[in-house]
Amino acid sequence: MTDDRQAGLTGNTRKADSQYVEDALGIEDEYESELAAVQVALTRYEVTPFEYARRRSEIAARAFLRLAEAHRRFVARNS
């Protein structure tokens, strides 16, 4: 592989890496915000422990699926 081509791939990889990190951090921020809101609702007795557990699971599942999609985009950008 030529040095020019390798440099181009390295640049693309770095861009893909930084985009993936940006996506992952955004997903994590949203996850933590949603989780904090439901935790506050639990401490205020606005939701039952059962409802809290259900909502927490839903929040985690959404975050996991969004992170999986971000990972798929990352892999596609590096291919």
Task: Identify the notable features of this structure and list them briefly.
about 0% strand, mainly alpha, about 90% helix, about 80 residues
Provide structural commentary:
Helix 1 (3-43) packs antiparallel against helix 2. The protein has helices spanning 3-43, 49-78. The model has no long low-confidence stretch (mean pLDDT 86). The longest helix has 41 residues, at 3-43. With 79 residues, it is mainly α. 90% of the residues lie in helices and 0% in strands.
List the helices and strands and how they pair.
Blueprint lengths: L2 H41 L5 H30 L1
Helix pairs in contact: 1-2
The radius of gyration over CA amounts to: 19 Å
SSE class: mainly alpha
Report, as a whole number of angstroms, the end-to-end distance: 16 Å
Which shape, going by the Cα principal axes?
A: elongated
Point out poorly predicted stretches: none
Number of helices: 2
Gist?
90% of the residues lie in helices and 0% in strands. It is an all-alpha fold and 79 residues long.
